[in-house]
Design goal:
The complex is a heterodimer of chains A (193) and B (541). Chain A is an alpha/beta fold and 193 residues long. Chain A has one domain: Pyruvate-ferredoxin oxidoreductase, PFOR, domain III (Pyruvate-ferredoxin Oxidoreductase, domain 3). Chain A contains 7 helices and 6 strands. Chain A has a 6-stranded mixed β-sheet, with helices on both faces. The longest helix of chain A is centred in the C-terminal third of the chain and has 21 residues. The two termini of chain A are 22 Å apart. Chain B has 3 domains: 206 residues, Rossmann fold (3-Layer(aba) Sandwich), CATH 3.40.50; 104 residues, Rossmann fold, CATH 3.40.50; 167 residues, 3-Layer(aba) Sandwich (Rossmann fold), CATH 3.40.50. Chain B has a 6-stranded mixed β-sheet, sandwiched between helices. Chain B has a 5-stranded mixed β-sheet with strand order 8-10-9-12-13, with helices on both faces. Chain B is an alpha/beta fold and 541 residues long. Chain B contains 19 helices and 18 strands. Classes of the chains: A alpha/beta (193), B alpha/beta (541). At the A-B interface, β2, α2, β5 and α3 of A face β7, α10 and α13 of B. β2 of chain A pairs antiparallel with β7 of chain B.
């Protein structure tokens, strides 16, 4: 088993929480893991990405080679397109469709979505509305994670367990909201594919 | 002992705690910050009473670490690569004084300049100071090497440099801890009490001692276990690969064996005997290293004449920027994957100041005040406010090194440029701006120094600022006239008032200090959250 995942978004959108959740689930399953993060200057409202690699055998490179990622998991649609050089031909592009507009030359969102839909394997969803309905827009990242869950090669329950671990300190309410967010994403992805 | 999922930085910190560290010294700097932060937040480190507060700059950090080593205890000092420039005086001389308690210096390089103004390679500093240098290739090795570094530091009485790069510093993987945690050292003074007195006569003696250790350092490189020779049947090429680059090489062969002989380098000086062994059996060399062509340049004196060396110098690998698996594949003539190109509509999203950031209001006022003088007269420094160089502000015209805004403004004022303004952050000011201000005061230079006080080291994530609550008294103590130390409140509603204050000081002939003061919006919101949580906890109890 080997999964190479590119996580993408804008600083502050919770990319590293997704990485932590998948990481914890993977380690719990005894998988090897390498995860390269971006810290520092680019975090301030700029593009943020992380290379997350899981395998049942030791992993050499911290960076995913181009053309070999199994999944791009994005919390922002425009950001999802920036890592296409890494995505394998059969790889999945899984993204939130709600734009984060902090630049004046943000392209028309319809064009962005059209480019996403050009990929044979894609899941595009309004994760923000789904999260809002559940209780907080803050869970948008976990909805996207839920949508990616069926493609990650780890059983669903491992992600639930990881979320309980990660958000446990913040109380039952927050845990349940994130579990719901995970479920909604997962159901949406399974229903559409 | 349990396995931990750690960043390269964190692996180094855990390694140091487990190796009997007594104190860690550092100034925050990407990608090195998380080493010290890990020690600061480690319960174990607190129990063990390991000293871990931030230092004013890398030089004070380095010197304090030398002092702790003098007293016989183990000290670590951490910095980003350009921080080693600041610490260089102390660092290079620490090679000559040698170490008493274990002394380990960690320098985190930033190839591709993700968060830096250059991509200098710290290995040169290790060679310059004539001390052993280690370069781990993964998180586990980073952890293990810290133990080894402290061991050889104490055995050979020398500081040891550990060089890491961004992709290791900020990449997470599982690390197996050692079974036993080593006790800290007790205080023991150096056996020779003149060891640290670098007066010429004694320094010459110490320098000779350092030179005499070189053979031993080389021997350790060749036999210490961090430089390994992997045999290969195809002798048409020999590969020398160091640090993180080893991972990219191995990625390209998957789980197959590399057909060529490979010399994996993790310790310097360059292991000459192993290089010569390779020279005897291969037709050509390739050197794959992250950073500068450090090994590649040194090969010339070691290899037989007319043998081709491929690497960063002959263009087989790019001369600048970090490596990755694809670049290494191309250099080796291996097949390399590629995906779809990035669509042209996917425009970049440069970093920007946060919503509500006090610097926004400062720059709005400064831009307004500067309307009558035109552009090109504002020097700046290293911090979040450097983003003021980008639209929509475009307020500043320089970013060179920590503290340079003050002294560059002074130099330009000396040249007759008016107005001449410096924009510097509170923590950058106490890092390296204070001495420049003293120069300006002594010369009565016609400058306006704006110290943007957001009460934290913001860019690296909100660490404690050495300047906190001290700025006015520092400026006064340096000799700035009290009437020309102006504190402003950078808020949208104060735009006109602040603009006028800046205008007034631009009109004053002499040294003015303007301190726009408002807490960083990020640390403020974090503080409010913690406060609310505490309140909630109290009310439910």
């Amino acid at each position: 088993m080997k999964k190479d995942i590119i996580l993408a978004g804008v600083g502050g959108q919770g990319i590293l929480s997704i990485a932590a959740t998948i990481g914890m689930a993977a380690v719990d399953k005894g998988l090897y893991l390498k995860q390269a993060e971006v810290h520092g200057m680019s975090q301030q409202g700029g593009e943020v990405q992380s290379h997350l690699r899981l395998s049942d055998r030791p992993i050499a490179s911290d960076l995913i080679p181009e053309g070999e990622a199994d999944i791009i998991l994005a919390v922002e649609p425009l950001e999802s397109l920036k890592y296409l050089p890494w995505l394998a031909p059969e790889g999945w592009l899984i993204t939130n469709t709600v734009p984060f507009k902090n630049i004046s030359n943000y392209p028309h969102i319809d064009e962005v979505i059209a480019r996403i839909k050009e990929r044979k394997n894609h899941v595009a969803m309004d994760a923000e509305s789904i999260a809002k309905n559940i209780g907080s827009v803050k869970a948008t990242n976990i909805v996207v994670l839920g949508a990616a869950a069926p493609f990650l090669g780890i059983e669903y329950e491992a992600f639930e367990k990881a979320l309980r671990n990660i958000f446990g300190r913040k109380g039952e309410e927050i845990v349940n909201m994130n579990l719901k967010a995970l479920k909604s994403g997962q159901e949406l992805a399974t229903a559409n594919n | 002992m349990q396995k931990l999922l750690l960043l390269g930085d964190e692996a180094i910190a855990q390694g140091a705690i487990d190796a009997g560290l007594s104190g860690i010294y550092a100034y925050p700097g990407t990608p090195s910050t998380e080493i010290t932060e890990y020690v600061q937040s480690s319960k174990k480190a607190q129990e063990l009473n390991i000293r871990s507060e931030w230092s004013a700059n890398e030089k004070t950090a380095m010197e304090a670490a030398i002092g702790m080593s003098y007293a016989g205890k183990r000290a670590m000092v951490c910095m980003k690569h350009v921080g080693l420039n600041v610490a260089a005086d102390a660092f290079v001389n620490s090679g000559i004084t040698g170490a008493n308690g274990g002394l380990v210096v960690v320098s985190a390089d930033d190839p591709s300049m993700h968060s830096s103004q250059n991509e200098q390679d710290s290995r040169f500093y290790g060679k310059f100071a004539l001390i052993p240098t280690l370069e781990p290739h993964d998180q586990q090795q980073a952890y293990d090497m810290v133990h080894y570094a402290f061991d050889i530091s104490e055995q050979l009485g020398t500081p040891v440099l550990i060089r890491i790069v961004t992709r290791l510093a900020h990449s997470r993987s599982a690390v197996q801890r050692k079974e036993t945690i080593r006790q800290q050292n007790k205080i023991t003074l150096p056996s020779d009490l003149s060891q640290y007195i670098l007066l010429p006569a004694m320094a010459r003696k110490r320098y000779r001692t350092l030179i005499n250790k070189q053979d031993r350092f080389l021997e350790l490189s060749e036999t210490g276990g961090y430089n390994t020779y992997h045999e290969g049947s195809d002798k048409s090429l020999g590969i020398i690969v160091s640090g993180l680059a080893y991972n990219y090489l191995m990625e390209n062969y998957g789980y197959r064996k590399v057909p060529y002989p490979v010399l994996q380098v993790g310790q310097y000086p360059v292991p000459e005997a192993l290089v010569r062994k390779m020279d005897e059996e291969v037709d050509e060399f390739m050197v794959i290293e992250e950073g500068f062509p450090f090994i590649e340049e040194q090969l010339k004196g070691l290899l037989s004449k007319n043998i081709t060396v491929k690497g960063r110098l002959d263009g087989s690998l790019p001369r600048t920027g970090e490596l990755n698996p694809n670049i290494v594949a191309k250099a080796l003539g291996l097949e390399s994957g590629y995906g779809d190109p990035v669509p042209s509509l996917a425009v970049s999203r440069p970093p920007e100041l946060c919503k509500g950031c006090p610097h926004i209001d400062t720059y709005n006022a400064l831009n307004k005040a500067m309307e009558e003088y035109g552009q090109g007269k504002v020097f700046s420094d290293i911090g979040c406010y450097t983003l003021g160089a980008l639209p929509p502000f475009q307020s500043i015209n320089s970013c060179v090194d920590m503290g340079a805004s003050v002294t560059m403004a002074k130099g330009a004022a000396d040249a007759g440029m008016h107005p001449s303004i410096a924009v510097i952050g509170d923590s950058t000011f106490t890092h390296s701006g204070m001495t420049g201000l003293l120069d300006a005061v002594n010369d009565n230079s016609n400058v306006v120094i704006m110290i943007l006080d957001n009460a934290t080291v913001a860019m690296t994530g909100g660490q404690h600022s050495s300047a906190l609550n001290r700025l006015e008294s520092i400026c006064k103590g340096i000799g700035v006239e009290e009437d020309h130390i102006r504190v402003l409140s950078p808020l949208p509603k104060n735009l006109e008032e602040n603009t006028n204050a800046i205008r007034e000081e631009l009109g004053y002939e002499g040294v003015s200090v303007i301190i726009p003061r408002r807490e960083c919006i990020k640390t403020l919101s974090r503080r409010m959250k913690t406060k609310a949580k505490k309140k909630k906890k109290e009310s439910t109890q």
